[in-house]
Amino acid sequence: MIPEDLHYSEEHEWVRVDGDVVTIGITDFAQDQLGDIVYVELPTVGDTVESGSTVGELESTKSVSDIFSPVSGEVVARNEALDGGEEVINSDPYGEGWLFKVRVLDDATEGLLTPEEYAGLTSA
In what order do the strands lie in the sheet with 64-68? Predict the structure, then answer.
C-alpha cells in the first residue's frame, strides 16, 4: 500500500512535507527489492544536497544501492537510530525507518510523483 500523504521520486524515495522541512525515506517497494538492509550511509547534518544527487548508500544482503536526494536544500537531521538498527527500514519504511530531513529552498514537491503516479511506476 502506498501512503497517500507522501510524494515520491522515480528512484523510490518518499517525501513527507512539514513546512519548509521534508522527511525522506525509501519506499516499501524499494526496501522489498533490496532485501534485508545491513548498513546505511547518510548525509551529514549541515550538508547541502541537490535534487537528484547521490547523498548516501544502502547496503543489503542482495546489493548496494545509492540514496538520492529528491529535493534541494540543507540536511537538518539524520536518523541516528539507524546506526546499528538498519532493519527498521525493512519493517517500517514510512515511519521509524526514515532516513534524513532537509530544509528545502524551493517547492518541495516540484518534480515529484503523486501517489497515483508512483503506483503506476511500481506496477509496470
Answer: 37-41, 54-60, 64-68
